[in-house]
Amino acid sequence: MRESGQVKSRSASARDKLMKLNKSQFQELSTDVYDEMMRRTDEHAFPFLTVRDDFHPKRNQARQKLATLSSNRFRDLATDIYYEIERRFPSVTKSIQERMPSRDRDRMRERDRDYPREYSQRKDSANTPTDYQKNSSSPAGNNATSLDNLMADIGSMLTSPKSQSNHENEINKMQKEIDELKAEVQDLKASLEECNELLEDKEKLNKELDDLENEHQNLQEDYESREQMAKDIRQEVANLLEEIKDLQQKNEELLAEKEKNEETIRKLREGQDTKDNYSHHGSSRDVSPRDKSPSARDEIRKILDDISLDLKDGVIKEDKVNAYEDAVNNLLDAKESEKPANVLVAMKSIVISCKNITEDIGSFENNFDIPDDDRDYLDNLKNYLSEALTTLMTSAKSYATSQGKAPVPDLEDSLLSLTDTIVDLIKSSKKIKLNSSTSPTRKKSFRDRGRDNGSSHVKSVPELKEFIKDNTDKIVVSIQSLLYNLRQSSSFDNEFLDIVNGITSIVDEIINESQDTLDSLNSDYKPDIENILLDLTKSNSKLDELGQRMISSPQSKTTKQQIASASYDIANYVKNLINNLK
């Protein structure tokens, strides 16, 4: 009884497992059981099922294990599979029963009445006892042929060419979809990489765009500054041309008047009857403009002698005034020489001495606490000095270009006016110094840019030209730095003054070296170069004075424009100097 119960329990468990198999698993198991049954009925068959390459190794191993089952165990397994086929595929089993004899069909119906009830009980409880063992022994023996037919039909149905073709088509379809998905994934990866590269390129382009916009803004500001500078220069050139035109017209009128006077004198000479009358007329004619030169020289000497007391403990050093007096005497000597162009060479000493005087004033303004009113007054005196110096330079140019035919009094009057302005500057600065604080605030020392040639070597023209080219680069860099400070800063300190001093120091050195070389030559182009050096000296002195003024009036737009214009003039004159050196 116990053994019978164990068999029933094992059979019930096996049937439950068959019910839990999916379609594919059940098809494989039923096919393997059918193949094993065919092998057992074949007397010449192998002792176990052969290995098939199209099956999984574990399935081949399970197929071979079927040969180890005893006949009863294998019969029970085949019976359970038959019932499960009947449950899963009722239409197949029905067609087989119709082909069976009537006696076998009656047995099948009787067995079918009991089997559903037993199958229903196994669904409710896997351990519930059943009568399956009692009912299953008979079908296993009587329905061997039915099982063969049933398994053959099932195998044929499940492994038919149409099913296999559908399966292969489905596999091919799925493989195609997988390939398409893989290709799509690759395309997406490539697109993603391309997008990342585009994003990186976009970031780079945005950065380059920002840099270019900043550079464009800087260039635009520089262009506007240069445009304004060019506008100012054009205006100044137009004024100079107008002034030159007026001077030429005046010169023509003077020449016409001179010719008229000479004609009158000639006629008077012819009409004189006696030597006394001729002498009388001759003495009235023989008045040379140069006779005024000694009086002008003496007057200037007297003016400067009268301020000797003001030079003691004053702002302007006595040696600077003595240098100015020597420069005045050189100018008057040049005027009386046979070469009128020598006045241009002498004018250089005048300009340098005036610049040294304004340097003393600038140093005084930087190192002492000066009231605003007094500072403004000094600025006005320096402006008067610059204007008087400009007038003198114009008179000297007219005298030189006219080969001594220009009126001499204009030159002497300009020289006296300049001297009077310097005297006012000496006296006023000393008075302001005495009234100012005795505890000056010391600032960074102002560099001495006077000529200091450590070597007596005079450069040849090629050497001088190369020397000027080398220093031109320094001038350009310094001017660019100066213009940048003017645009960016609203207040100016000693650093700005150092830039100005650096430019004027280089220009002073160029002027001194050029003059030394020029003095050693006897060339036809000397007057042209002397004119350039004179203009360069004037612009250099103007830049130095404007630099001092910028420190005291940092918000003055006019002073900024004048500094830019003077810087441009310096660069232009240096360029012309290089071009004229042959």
Care to describe what's here?
By secondary structure, the chain is mainly α. It has 3 domains: 2-159, no CATH class; 290-443, Nucleotidyltransferases  domain 2 (Four Helix Bundle (Hemerythrin (Met), subunit A), Up-down Bundle); 457-582, A middle domain of Talin 1 (Up-down Bundle). The protein is built from 20 helices and no strands. It is rod-shaped and about 180 Å long.
Q: Please, how many helices?
A: 20
Rounded to the nearest angstrom, the radius of gyration is 62 Å
Mean pLDDT across residues: 75
Number of strands: 0
How many domain regions?
Answer: 3
Distance between the termini: 140 Å
How would you sum up the major sheet?
A: none
Strand fraction band? under 5%
Indicate the multimeric state: single chain
Described by the principal axes of the CA atoms, the overall outline is rod-shaped
Order of helices and strands: HHHHHHHHHHHHHHHHHHHH
- The helix content is over 70%
The secondary structure category is: mainly alpha
Uncertain ranges:
115-147, 273-294, 437-455
